[in-house]
Amino acid sequence: MRRRWTDGRIVGLTSLGQRCKDEFNAPYWHYHRADLHRMLLDACADPAGPGPVVVVHTSSKVVEMDRTDPVRPVAITEDGRRHGADVIIGADGVRSRVRDLMGAPDTLLFSGEMAYRALIPGDLIAADPATRWLVDRYQSTIWYGPDRHLVHYMIRGGDYLNVVACVPCTDAVRENWTLPATAQDLVEAFPGWDDRVPAMLSKAKEDVLAFALYYRRRDPVWLDGRVALLGDACHAMLPYQAQGASQAMEDAAVLAEELGAVTASGIEGALRRYVDRRAKHAGMVQDASLANKTFYHLADGPEQRARDEKLTNFDGESDVSYDWLWSGTPLNDPDLGAFSYQFAR
């Protein structure tokens, strides 16, 4: 659902739940990021699962790499431990140390904006008649306004309302990357907006954070020998397409498929194919996310009215359509029966 900032008028609406299963053979989920992390970690550490159990080391910041032996790179952590492997994958985020150690070009850019993020207790939302509508029917909603926008949706079956509010960045947040904030900061960031907005945002508790929004310039340099990058380390994007984590998981699926098809002697070719299959696609999503920064934040006027008119027939909102974004799979050998079969678990 897309709403106007001044009065909450709906300017775009599309169905997601059953439609996504029917048309794209997959569900549309809203989830807590920590729940996703836990699911992935449990799968990696499950002794009854396929393949060897993954050993996870925490508090193990990589500070150096030793590539004296080109077919056996070594990651060195700050406590001096050495972790040799056939391959090193830098999936270490927007400020990737592995990327720096590879000598990859610095493609990081500042957007000029920041995002407030908050989890508002669902019971507070449900108890107030002014916000009860948010739990009567679960919907993913974006409010468009001049120079800023607001996203919210329920997670964990209504336990929380997840809020992401993108606004011009302050000097303090840009300098520190992340700072704590308050519910009052959230409310004051949306002056003059529909009354439902402050009614909702004022219920945020002490876990509000402000994040400076950086992204990477599109660049297909993800690979050097047996060291490769994945996710934000190679294609960090603005959150205006809700695709950062999704694109990282697509990277991981393709990388696993390519590495799983070769022995040690074929690793370099597998990594090259991984980049060839993913760099263009992820780059297009990067560009579309950046373009949405302008599209979402148009000032009231002719361009805004033309945008809203297009959204009345809603099948996407950016330089890439939902049909393109959600159709198909990055895999050569996908499990196409997973969500169309009635007994799928």
UniProtKB/TrEMBL annotation:
Record InterPro entries:
FAD-bd, FAD-dep_Monooxygenase_BioMet, FAD/NAD-bd_sf
Q: Which GO terms describe its molecular function?
A: FAD binding; monooxygenase activity
Q: Which UniProt keywords apply?
A: FAD, Flavoprotein, Monooxygenase, Oxidoreductase
Q: Which residue range or ranges hold the FAD-binding domain?
A: 78-287
Q: What cofactor does this one take?
A: FAD
Q: Which domain of life is it from?
A: Bacteria
Q: Where do the TM regions start and end?
A: none
Which protein are we looking at?
FAD-binding domain-containing protein
Q: Which organism is it from?
A: Streptomyces antimycoticus
